[in-house]
Amino acid sequence: MGRIKTNNNASRKDIILQKAAILFKEKGFKAASMRELAEVVGVEAASLYNHIKSKNELLHEICFSVANKYNEKLEQIESMDASALKKIEELLRFHIISMVQNFDEVFVSDREWKYLTDPYLSNFQTQRRTYRKRFAAIIEDGIKKKEIKKIDATTAVLIMLHAISGIESWHRSKQKISGAELEENMITILVGGLKK
């Protein structure tokens, strides 16, 4: 066991977070141990504590890093001078690309957040609810402007987000279309289904 190997773009802590996301995705947060993480990173378990305080800190950083990216993107999209359908398409493309390119982190943030401890757990739950309400508000705006069919916006958001979380099975598939094809197919189905 030696030092944590880094490249020019990533710090030692970044490497630990990346490896933790992979481990938490594969084993689940509860079952994953710091000893296993140390093995994957290639250091003694005690060395990890030079860079992080606890396994909980890793989960917190992964979840809130993903949440912050999603919130930043949503703010950009909300301020766009575009139709509701275009805003929804942009947001869905961001979700799909995140699931394709940053699967481990997004998966952990989406599935393992329930193991956060308070005050982080409450904060994260509030952020999730607020995000979904803001997403639904874009749909409701499109309904008012007669761009989108009259549907329940909250239900539409849940269906779309659950469809995107299903990209997990695309990652596991042995014969699969490219990420770009997947994105286009999903946009055709999800956005096309909203059009009036």
Q: What's the topology here?
A:
Blueprint (H helix, E strand, L loop, with lengths): L11 H16 L6 H8 L3 H4 L6 H24 L5 H18 L1 H9 L8 H25 L8 H13 L1 H6 L6 H14 L4
Overview in brief:
The protein is mainly alpha-helical and 196 residues long.
Which descriptors apply to this entry?
196 residues; mainly alpha; Tetracycline Repressor, domain 2; 10 helices; 70% helix; elongated
What features would you describe in this structure?
The protein is mostly helical and 196 residues long. The protein has 2 domains: 37 residues, Orthogonal Bundle (Arc Repressor Mutant, subunit A); 130 residues, Tetracycline Repressor, domain 2, CATH 1.10.357.10. Helices cover 70% and strands 0% of the residues.
Tell me the overall shape.
elongated
CATH class of the largest domain: Mainly Alpha
Count the beta strands: 0
* Total domains: 2
Q: Quickly count the helices.
A: 10
Could you describe the largest sheet, including whether it forms a barrel? none
Average pLDDT number: 90
Unreliable runs: none
Q: What is the N-to-C succession of helices and strands?
A: HHHHHHHHHH
Structural class based on helices, strands and sheet pairing: mainly alpha
CATH topology of the largest domain: Tetracycline Repressor, domain 2
CATH superfamily of the largest domain: Tetracycline Repressor, domain 2
The helical percent reads 55-70%
Judging by the overall fold, what is the CATH architecture of the largest domain? Orthogonal Bundle
Beta strand %: under 5%
Distance between the termini: 60 Å
